[in-house]
Amino acid sequence: MKEKIYYNAEEVATMLGVSMGKAYKILREMNKDLAGKGFLTIAGKIPVEYFKEKWYGGTKEVSA
């Protein structure tokens, strides 16, 4: 099975317990930050590693 490399808005909303609208806003802000650092981004998705770094301090495993 392939390792997941991106989270989408639905997954972010579920993990953070927020609405879909808020999840999309979070993704836009995170993608804007990545773009500012020179990375290419995909609208509505965020790299798993970057998400973990920003929200959980870079931990590899997050228990639900």
Key phrases:
single chain; 64 residues; mainly alpha; two-stranded antiparallel ribbon; globular
Structure description:
The protein has 64 residues and is mostly helical. Helices cover 53% and strands 9% of the residues. It contains 3 helices and 2 strands; from the N terminus they run βααβα. It has helices at 9-16, 20-36, 48-56; strands at 6-8, 45-47. The protein has a two-stranded antiparallel sheet with strand order 1-2. The longest helix is centred in the middle third of the chain and has 17 residues, at 20-36. The two termini are 21 Å apart.
Q: Biggest sheet, strands in spatial order?
A: 1-2
Order of helices and strands: EHHEH
Structural class: mainly alpha
First-residue to last-residue Cα separation: 21 Å
> How many β-strand runs?
2
Main sheet attributes: strand count, strand direction, barrel closure: 2 strands, antiparallel
Topology:
Elements: E1 6-8, H1 9-16, H2 20-36, E2 45-47, H3 48-56
Helix pairs in contact: 1-2
Short précis:
14% of the residues are buried. With 64 residues, the chain is mainly alpha-helical. The chain has helices at 9-16, 20-36, 48-56; strands at 6-8, 45-47.
